[in-house]
């Protein structure tokens, strides 16, 4: 039985931290996109999101495409997407795909929040 995607969001400083756990693939991408689109729809100002991928066990090309599309959507609205991804399989996929060079990737949530605070 395949693990599903689990999303949980909370505010931390001026950022929305979204935990992304489970498997991000063609079956779960719509759930991620819908969640981010609903967050964007609720906000009148630029949205700054940290996607915590620490507990993401798998990400395929559809998941990578979704992350890139979310980055573009947020950026076009004046916002930003940062990723938390420790060493492991998902980080290797981000590096191989080049997405790790297009998005700020941090090893821990604390590092992403500290970095985000400096950019703000």
Give an account of the 3D structure.
- This protein has 120 residues and is an alpha/beta fold.
- The chain has a single domain (5-108), classed as STAS domain (Transcription Regulator spoIIAA).
- The chain has helices at 29-42, 61-76, 89-97, 99-102, 109-119; strands at residues 6-12, 15-24, 48-52, 56-59, 80-84, 105-106.
- Strands 1, 2, 3, 4, 5 and 6 form a 6-stranded mixed beta sheet that branches.
- A hairpin with a 2-residue loop joins strand 1 and strand 2.
- The radius of gyration is 13 Å and the shape is globular.
- One of its GO terms (molecular function) is anti-sigma factor antagonist activity.
- It holds the Pfam family STAS.
- Belongs to the anti-sigma-factor antagonist family.
Low-confidence stretches: none
Please, what is the oligomeric state? single chain
Residue share in helix: 40-55%
Strand-and-helix sequence, N→C? EEHEEHEHHEH
Count of the separate structural domains: 1
Euclidean distance between termini CA atoms? 42 Å
Which sheet architecture does the biggest sheet show? 6 strands, mixed
The CATH superfamily turns out to be STAS domain
Q: Structural class, from helix and strand content? A: alpha/beta
The CATH architecture: 2-Layer Sandwich
User: What is the overall silhouette?
Assistant: globular
Strand percentage: 25-35%
Give the overall average pLDDT.
88
The number of helical runs is: 5
Organism: Streptomyces scabichelini
Family: Belongs to the anti-sigma-factor antagonist family.
GO molecular function: anti-sigma factor antagonist activity
Pfam families: STAS (PF01740)
